[in-house]
Amino acid sequence: MVLMNARKVGIIIAFSALTIVLTFVRIPVPYPPGFSYQVFEIPIVVAFLLFGFKYGIVVALINMVAAMTFLIGPGGLLGPPFYFAAILWMLVGVQISLKIVSRWSDSIKAVSASKYVALSTAVGILTRTIFMLPLDWALYGAIVSLVTGISVPEAYTYVTTILPGIVLYNVTIPLYVIPISCYIAQKVRKSVEIEAIH
Questions:
Q1: For a tag site, which of 118, 134, 156, 181 has the least CB within 10 Å?
Q2: How far from chain centre, in Å, is Cα 57?
Q3: What are 109-137's pLDDT values in tens digits?
Q4: How far apart (Å, rounded) are the C-alpha atoms in residues 78 and 84?
């Protein structure tokens, strides 16, 4: 029992450390201003795919707390929970895909990897984009007002004008995060025997 708990803690620490290190890798995007593509979400999705929803969430929470403590960006303390919500909704989409695939077949292995990746990516895009849209509008307006010092109505007018870019941003992140995560998880499964630790 102690060994199993130590293994769980070790997995969570390893994946959390990787997300924290990868938080520094940023590729700025032209839309919306101030946003960037990041790769720290990939280890979170890999942990989820290899070990389950619970692990993905715990790793994402640790990343959020670390970012709020040590890596405060332009969004201040609101930025990390904002990213956490986006990751959570994307993971929900991947989880829904797993349920759909398991209904298609008695074994997920019987469904081709490309079909699973395509479905996970599509559903991850839908859940992240649909559920983040009202949150993006509400919270990003507050963040813009807080960071720039402009009035709240001006901030929300600004956010409304760049909302298509924010939607595009939320659509494009799962397009690279989910397929790369699925590929890594598949390679790790093949090279290392991973027992279920749920």
A1: 134
A2: 9
A3: 555 788 889 999 999 999 999 999 999 88
A4: 10
Among the listed ranges 65-79, 124-138, 178-192, which one has the minimum average pLDDT value?
65-79
CA distance linking residue 198 with residue 195, whole number of Å: 9
Helix H or strand E segment including 26:
strand 26-28
User: What residues does 36 pair with on adjacent strands?
Assistant: 28
pTM of the model: 0.85
Measure the CA–CA gap between 7 and 11, rounded to whole angstroms: 6
When divided into structural domains, the chain yields a total of 1
What are the b/e assignments for 13-27, b being 16+ CB within 10 Å? eebbebbbebbeeee
Domain that holds residue 29: 2-191
Residues 6+ apart with CB under 8 A from 80: 63, 64, 65, 67, 68, 71
CATH number of the domain enclosing 179 = 1.10.1760.20
Within a domain: residue 196? Answer: no
The verdict on residue 197 lying in a domain is no
pLDDT digits (tens, 9 = 90+) for 13-61: 999 999 999 988 989 988 887 788 999 999 999 999 999 999 999 999 9
User: CA 74 to CA 101: how far, in whole Å?
Assistant: 40
Mapped onto helix, strand or coil, the DSSP state of residue 36 is strand
Residue 100 one-letter amino acid: I
